[in-house]
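Margin note: ligand = flavin-adenine dinucleotide.
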Amino acid sequence: MPPPSVPSALVIGAGIMGLSAAWGLARAGFAVRVLDQEFAPNPRGASVDHHRLIRHAYGARLGYMRMVDAAYAAWDLVWEEIGEPLHVPTGVVAMAEASGTGWIAESRAALRGDGREVTDLTPEALAMRLPMLATEGIADAFHLAPGGVLLARRIVAALADRLKRRGVVFERVRAVRLHPDVAGVELFDGSDRVADLLVVAAGPWAPQLLPEAVAVQAGVIPSRQVVVMLEPPACHRPAWEAAPMLLLRLTEEGRGFYVVPPVEGTPLKIGDHRFSLAGDPEADPREATPAEVEAVLALVRARLRDAADYRVLEARACYYDVAPDERFVVEALTPRCFVMSGFSGHGFKFGPLLGLALARAACDGALAAGLAHWAAGEAPPPPGLLADLEGETNVA
Ligand SMILES: Cc1cc2nc3c(=O)[nH]c(=O)nc-3n(C[C@H](O)[C@H](O)[C@H](O)COP(=O)(O)OP(=O)(O)OC[C@H]3O[C@@H](n4cnc5c(N)ncnc54)[C@H](O)[C@@H]3O)c2cc1C
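Resulting structure:
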């Protein structure tokens, strides 16, 4: 009797989404080939930086808030796979200059509505907890114990390495045209690759690669985002090393910043919550301009005690792909082609979870529509989509 044939999959993109899809598909029995224009970890990819945050505070976005428990369970499987947990728990402090309305108030209501423990912080408690910050004028604050830092660059490197040892093939090539109906792709050198299944996880390059009608319908736009790494003065270093991640909303609608504390030798990092919705991930320089650096520092300066004593270590521009309402696009374009796109500034934490779910839907076409709605944050997962996580303790 001939041996049963092994289904094959091509994955475009070796960021966290492509690697996670490759991992899910390899676990499901596919022979997987990953194509990327760079070696992983690609320093120009949206996934590659010292860190990415995982937290439940999600404003009124109940779908994504509820996905975080399953995301943690999927990360537990990744830690087993790569042999070490690359996550540092820090907890979360969320703060706002206005009380009673906006993202912080919505997050608190949503978290409490789901029975999660949220500790409100009085101005005195906040000042004690964060002595390196000027907390005057913060009108609302809470602490959430779960949440932490995912060591992103190390995760991408370890996952790519582990997949190679599992037999996944990596090729450094540039894809120029997709053939979703036949799970095929044309490459820059004129050759092509075909498989039983194609997954397109091209990050901020997706709008350039996807068929135009698909890109327009998904509404995904690349967005240049600047992050600034700082060295705090020696007197504040111990406080920063013990700090939670900080999410601060300023009074002006939509303005705010996040701070990633220095963990495991990584720098203190500041980022802007707003999207630029501009720029070209391929053509534009990645050095941040002095004006871009100043725009980030201007957000945070008034909140840092001894701000003049902080030193800028590095500032760089990253790109991510933003879809309307920051919803994820994880959809079957055809029965043989899935697209993973629109992960904006909040996708990394969900990478392994989405990779496992996509692999399930690839094996059972009836799950594909439910996958898309769930990944868009609009609906609970259909039965069977998260079967890989059954028995994992972290799933609520
Ligand atoms: C500054 C910043 C802060 C963020 N903070 C957080 C956070 O705190 N928490 C969180 O959960 N998420 C966060 N995110 C979001 C998250 O990191 C991204 O959404 C996620 O990493 C996207 O992964 P990806 O695999 O889709 O894209 P990428 O990592 O960009 O991977 C896409 C890959 O596809 C390859 N590729 C593209 N086109 C082609 C082609 N034609 N041929 C061959 N290869 C191709 C690229 O080379 C690239 O390696 C942040 C993102 C940024 C930029």
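The pocket of flavin-adenine dinucleotide is lined by residues 12-18, 35-38, 42, 45-47, 52-53, 174-175, 201-205, 209, 225, 227, 271, 318, 320, 343-349 (CB under 6 Å).
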